[in-house]
Specification:
Domain Protein kinase: 12-358
Shape: globular
Number of helices: 12
Radius of gyration: 22 Å
EC number: 2.7.11.1
Order of helices and strands: EEEEHEEHHEEHEEEEHHHHHHHH
CATH architecture of the largest domain: Orthogonal Bundle
Keywords: ATP-binding, Kinase, Nucleotide-binding, Serine/threonine-protein kinase, Transferase
Distance between the termini: 47 Å
Number of strands: 12
Helix content: 25-40%
CATH superfamily of the largest domain: Transferase(Phosphotransferase) domain 1
CATH topology of the largest domain: Transferase(Phosphotransferase), domain 1
Organism: Lentinula lateritia
Strand order of the largest sheet: 1-2-3-4-6-5
CATH class of the largest domain: Mainly Alpha
Number of domains: 2
InterPro entries: Kinase-like_dom_sf, Prot_kinase_dom, SRPK, Tyr_kinase_AS
Length: 360
């Protein structure tokens, strides 16, 4: 796909690139089917041929898909999904050198929206399967949808492309693009974001309680529930752990299990015995040499970061802003209930939605 390509008999034209994932590439396009002016801006998600099928959860579950069509290409048939043009993910906005934190009121508002969305998905009989901050996008202001191509390029910059070159120096084959397109930078969205979110990417979703027989969880390690990690067991309870209010408490895949035990205590059997390096990390009783509770982690938020002069923008807390004691206690209570090892001991999404932290 290239800038300027048109699909669906000229209905959708590619304007810029938004990003890519495990099984798709995401583009900014103009939907000319809209009767207003020259059409509206939309997100066009092009799925890999091997990820495209009529029963794809991305087509069956969400109400966010406005339309879809199939394009036959050199690599097979590809599903194209049309949805509202949205901003960056929460993960993209928070993954910055200074590790910013959303304003307290905004964090509660967005966490409540995410919890309500998860409850809606579960009530409809589905499990999302990859409910992480990378799949929670900020909405954009309505005026942006009506921007002209010139306005798009003035605000985001013109697409930056580069030639695809092979390691051998041979010409690129017909099954690969001849050029790469750089995605729009996340910082360019700062002043056109709404403080509301939308849930995306239902490619890992399935109808509860029975996932497909060949189901392979694709959630990143830092968001993966213990039962999924140790037993490959999935379900709505795993959604609750994976969506544990934005920033994963265990952000390092290399030391994920030691960090988990340092925060939540000894792993239950037989999971603890399945951890091969346990003798190098813990005492004989399975307890960590040094612990750091959820409460302690929350109290540490707001300590000086690596880049004191970094411009955080209006959505983030100012440097060194600490949580007050009441919020620490409420959020500790909620997270301790969401992050319990055993899924049967974890609170359900309805209890999450009703928790007093959201009303603080």
């Amino acid at each position: 796909m290239y800038i300027g390509d048109e699909f669906a008999n000229g209905r959708c034209g590619i304007i810029h690139k938004l990003g890519f994932g495990r099984s798709s590439t995401v583009w900014l396009a103009r939907d000319r089917q809209c009767t207003q002016g020259s059409g509206k801006l939309v997100t066009l998600k092009a799925l890999r041929a091997d990820a495209s099928n009529a029963d794809s959860p991305d087509l069956v579950i969400p109400k966010t898909i406005e339309d879809h069509f199939v394009v036959d290409g050199r690599n097979g048939s590809h599903d194209f999904l049309v949805s509202a043009f949205s901003g960056p993910s929460i993960q993209a906005m928070l993954y910055r050198p200074d590790r910013p934190r959303l304003r307290a009121a905004l964090a509660r508002k967005i966490a409540a929206q995410a919890a309500c969305a998860m409850e809606h998905i579960h009530r409809a009989g589905f499990v999302h399967g990859d409910f992480t901050t990378s799949n929670l996008l900020f909405r954009l202001k309505d005026k942006v949808m009506k921007w002209s191509d010139n306005k798009v390029y003035t605000h985001f910059g013109s697409p930056i492309t580069d030639e695809v070159r092979t390691c051998s120096g041979q010409l690129v084959g017909p099954h690969a693009p001849s050029e790469l397109v750089e995605a729009i930078g996340h910082d360019t969205f700062a002043n056109i974001l709404e403080e509301n979110i939308i849930v995306i990417d239902f490619g890992q979703s399935y109808r509860a309680p029975d996932p497909p027989k060949d189901y392979e969880p694709a959630t990143l390690a830092d968001y993966m529930s213990p039962e999924t990690r140790f037993e490959k067991r999935v379900g709505p309870e795993a959604d609750v752990t994976g969506g544990a209010l934005f920033d994963p408490f265990f952000p390092s895949d290399t030391y994920i299990i030691p960090q988990m035990i340092a925060t939540l205590g000894r792993l239950p059997d037989p999971w603890y015995n399945a951890f091969r390096n346990r003798a190098q990390c813990f005492e004989e009783d399975g307890q960590p040499e040094e612990g750091s509770s959820i409460r302690e982690k929350l109290r540490s938020f707001g300590t000086p970061k690596r880049i004191p002069g970094y411009n955080r923008g209006p959505m983030f807390e100012k440097m060194e802003t600490k949580m007050d004691d009441k919020e620490v206690e409420l959020l500790t209570d909620l997270l301790e209930k969401m992050l319990r090892y055993r899924p049967e001991n974890r609170i359900g999404i309805r209890e999450v939605v009703d928790h007093p932290w959201f009303k603080e």
